[in-house]
């Protein structure tokens, strides 16, 4: 069968770093509370000129450079985002234009924090079908623009950024036969809309709106759902937690990450954590974490890497990748 092999990875973070101490100056919170409940210490916050597409273009350029490719090599762009520059056109076509690319197809995909897992699964299926050869799979977000900066229960949790990987279709014959996206498992259940949503949009208030969350409910749902889809990925491939080299979960909260890894029997030293430095960057968090772990030499070719996420909807999912 055709496999989608990871050929490159890249990311980009806004210039401005905001610490918990900075947040203490305008909301009733403390560095200690935020670290204890979430593990977050700093996050990057976009300036006005750092829109989602701008971050996405820079992450895409970094991934292309990492792969030794140019936009001419790409024929598909899938961008996961819930914070597009405009209602339309898609952020993906803006990234396409920003790369100087006028061929191929580009579209956005919206599954909130699970967006990158959905995007990997979608691009993998495009490549497996034979319709496309090389996909830029991007997660890019500026959640700072949909936060109520007076609501301490949400504004301390999120950050901005973008990450990208390049997937290339390769026939399952030959040396790289066991590499690539081995399986993916996507779930959603729209009954949970009110647990985590943005209270605006063209069909409601006609404004952008701000993020609303019942944190405790999300937390409770997160650990169970995420462990279910990770087990689905293990079952589908006949692998176990022991076989994993790296567990790269959506970075929402350190407590959710460690509780999930613990429940799955994944050793703490295999868990990649960037939430301390990035906060929750929604669909960008996994590719940002993948890039960090590739750059510092942790993720190497041949490693078995599990990605998973849960987000608004609810949506949740996993993908198992042989790097
Ligand atoms: N600083 C100080 N105190 C605060 C803050 C803050 N930033 N926010 C809330 N508090 C207070 C509350 O008002 C409450 O005070 P009270 O007891 O006087 O009423 C107290 O702290 C405890 O609040 P809880 O909400 O019960 O705190 P909890 O331990 O549940 O932690 C948190 C809150 C961190 C939001 C947690 O529920 C959580 O992490 N949930 C998951 C959220 C998440 O990860 N969402 C994203 C996942 S999906 C996605 O990525 C889109």
UniProtKB/TrEMBL annotation:
Annotated region (ACP-binding), positions in chain: 251-255
Major localization class: cytoplasm
Record field: catalytic activity: malonyl-[ACP] + acetyl-CoA + H(+) = 3-oxobutanoyl-[ACP] + CO2 + CoA
EC number: 2.3.1.180
Domain Beta-ketoacyl-[acyl-carrier-protein] synthase III C-terminal: 235-323
A cellular component annotation (GO) from this entry: cytoplasm
Listed CDD domains: KAS_III (cd00830)
Pfam families according to UniProt: ACP_syn_III (PF08545), ACP_syn_III_C (PF08541)
Domain Beta-ketoacyl-[acyl-carrier-protein] synthase III N-terminal: 107-190
Pathway, per record: Lipid metabolism; fatty acid biosynthesis
UniProt keyword annotations, A-Z: Acyltransferase, Cytoplasm, Fatty acid biosynthesis, Fatty acid metabolism, Lipid biosynthesis, Lipid metabolism, Multifunctional enzyme, Transferase
Record's subcellular location: Cytoplasm
Active site per UniProt: 113, 250, 280
Gene Ontology BP terms: fatty acid biosynthetic process; secondary metabolite biosynthetic process
MF (Gene Ontology): 3-oxoacyl-[acyl-carrier-protein] synthase activity; beta-ketoacyl-acyl-carrier-protein synthase III activity
Assembly with partners or alone: Homodimer.
PANTHER family hit by this protein: 3-OXOACYL-[ACYL-CARRIER-PROTEIN] SYNTHASE 3, BETA-KETOACYL-[ACYL-CARRIER-PROTEIN] SYNTHASE III
Family listed: Belongs to the thiolase-like superfamily. FabH family.
Function of the protein: Catalyzes the condensation reaction of fatty acid synthesis by the addition to an acyl acceptor of two carbons from malonyl-ACP. Catalyzes the first condensation reaction which initiates fatty acid synthesis and may therefore play a role in governing the total rate of fatty acid production. Possesses both acetoacetyl-ACP synthase and acetyl transacylase activities. Its substrate specificity determines the biosynthesis of branched-chain and/or straight-chain of fatty acids.
Written domain comment of the UniProt record: The last Arg residue of the ACP-binding site is essential for the weak association between ACP/AcpP and FabH.
Protein name: Beta-ketoacyl-[acyl-carrier-protein] synthase III
Organism whose genome encodes this protein: Microvirga subterranea
Organism classification: Bacteria, Pseudomonadati, Pseudomonadota, Alphaproteobacteria, Hyphomicrobiales
């Amino acid at each position: 069968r055709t496999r989608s092999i990871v050929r490159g990875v890249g990311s980009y973070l806004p210039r401005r770093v905001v610490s918990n101490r900075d947040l203490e100056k305008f909301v009733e919170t403390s560095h200690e509370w935020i670290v204890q409940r979430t593990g977050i210490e700093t996050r990057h916050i976009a300036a006005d000129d750092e829109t989602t597409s701008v971050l996405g273009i820079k992450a895409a350029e970094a991934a292309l450079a990492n792969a030794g490719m140019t936009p001419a090599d790409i024929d598909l762009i899938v961008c996961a985002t819930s914070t597009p520059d405009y209602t339309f056109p898609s952020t993906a076509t803006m990234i396409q234009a920003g790369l100087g690319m006028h061929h191929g197809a580009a579209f956005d995909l919206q599954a909130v924090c699970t967006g990158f897992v959905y995007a990997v699964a979608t691009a993998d299926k495009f490549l497996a079908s034979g319709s496309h050869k090389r996909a830029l799979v991007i997660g890019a977000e500026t959640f700072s623009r949909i936060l109520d900066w007076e609501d301490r229960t949400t504004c301390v949790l999120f950050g901005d950024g973008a990450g990208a990987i390049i997937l290339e279709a390769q026939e399952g014959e030959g040396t790289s036969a066991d590499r690539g996206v081995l399986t993916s498992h996507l779930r959603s259940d729209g009954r949970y809309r009110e647990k985590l949503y943005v209270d605006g949009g063209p069909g409601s208030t006609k404004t952008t709106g701000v993020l609303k969350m019942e944190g405790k409910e999300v937390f409770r749902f997160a650990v169970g759902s995420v462990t279910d889809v990770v087990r689905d990925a293990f079952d589908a491939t006949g692998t176990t937690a022991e076989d994993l080299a790296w567990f790269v979960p959506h970075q929402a909260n350190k407590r959710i990450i460690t509780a999930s890894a613990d429940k799955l029997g994944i050793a703490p030293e295999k868990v990649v954590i960037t939430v301390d430095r990035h906060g929750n960057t929604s669909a960008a968090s996994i590719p940002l974490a993948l890039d960090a772990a590739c750059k510092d030499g942790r993720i190497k070719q041949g490693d078995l890497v599990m990605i998973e996420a849960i987000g608004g909807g609810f949506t949740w999912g996993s993908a198992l990748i042989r790097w």
